From TrEMBL:
Localization per record: Cell membrane
Polysaccharide chain length determinant N-terminal domain mapped to chain residues: 3-94
Topology term for the membrane: Multi-pass membrane protein
Main location, first listed in the record: membrane
A molecular function GO annotation: protein tyrosine kinase activity
Record keywords: Cell membrane, Membrane, Transmembrane, Transmembrane helix
Occurrences of domain Tyrosine-protein kinase G-rich (ranges): 144-194
Annotated Pfam families: GNVR, Wzz
Stated family: Belongs to the CpsC/CapA family.
GO CC list: plasma membrane
Protein name (record): Capsular biosynthesis protein
Amino acid sequence: MEETISLKELFHILKKRLAMILVIAFGAAIVSAIISFFFMTPIYQSSTQILVNQKKQEGAAIQYNEVQTNIQLTNTYKVIIKSPVILDQVKEKLGLNITTQELNKKIEVANEKDSQVVAVTAQDKDPKLARDIANTTAEVFKGEVAKIMSVDNVTVLSKAELSEELSPIKPRPMVNIAIAFVVGLMAAVGIAFLLEYLDNTVKKEEDVESLLGLPVLGIVARMDEETMNMTSHAPSSRKVRGQTIGS
């Protein structure tokens, strides 16, 4: 027959290994906190928005086909923004001592579905540099796209600014600590059950029967040291039979 384990036994195992489980879980959380606060470099993010839209003469109606064309152009513009033609000029204007590939990794370009607005986002450990990269990239692109595409349909909607309460986007210490605690807790529970599975100590009558294949006839009661001492030092009472000798 397959060996089964009851819910009560599961709780007993967890209770027996509770100290180990808590040490591992909180240890993982503490290590994560130390790494997040003292070893990981904070990264800041700044974004600017550009609008892809044809300039209209006063009183001219906006045509649906033109809007669709502008939306389709955004996909092309997203590629151009991160091309060496643009990024090399951004490096030169900001005096960056990094490669074009490294600058490319600092910039993300995205737009919502069916939207003419493109967001240029830059990330760096220096929040001011992140702002400057985003703004300069947008300005350089606006000037170069007219030469590359022979169109003038890009407008900078909003420039990246530094807020007073600026906080890094990563690392996120509290999230890291929570994840580390949960992972550590799960790992500790797994280790507790593994140790119990590998423990061959005989604990119950059923273990003896399973190991020897013989029925248990009797059980020796367990006595603690205090009870044994009381028993050994207890005075023994004896009854002495007396006889009365005649007068």
